[in-house]
Structure formats: C-alpha cells, structure tokens
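Consider the tokenized backbone below.
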C-alpha cells in the first residue's frame, strides 16, 4: 500500500468543515476564523538518509525549517 492509499484508507474520515485542505500532501489548511487560516506541514528527517550522524542539532533544525 503506497502513502496515498494509506491516507485515503485511514485518514479521509478526519475531514471537518473548518479544514480547507486536508491530509494528502503532508500539510493542511484550517480556517481558524473567517479571516484567518492556519497552515501546518509535516516532514521527516532521518539520520543517515537526510543528514549524517554527526550533524549538530542546530543544523538539523535549520534544515527542517528551511
């Protein structure tokens, strides 16, 4: 099962009227108030894949937020 099939199977129930863009692209947009939206995003950084083991925490944090 690929990522998108997994999301469709287990997370499509989590749709509410306040969610403008739901799960499916590692982010969501939520209508907080009539003129305000909250944008959230999730990603994974894996040691040895996305950065070497000896990378400092500050450098990992920078990469995560860049």
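A designed sequence for it:
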């Amino acid at each position: 099962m690929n990522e998108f099939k997994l999301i469709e199977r287990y997370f499509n129930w989590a749709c509410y009227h306040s969610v403008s863009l739901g799960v499916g692209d590692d982010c969501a947009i939520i209508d907080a108030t009539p003129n305000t939206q909250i944008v959230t995003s999730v990603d994974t950084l894996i040691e040895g894949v996305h950065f070497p083991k000896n990378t400092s925490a500050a450098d990992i944090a920078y990469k995560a937020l860049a």
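The CA atoms of residues 49 and 55 lie 12 Å apart.
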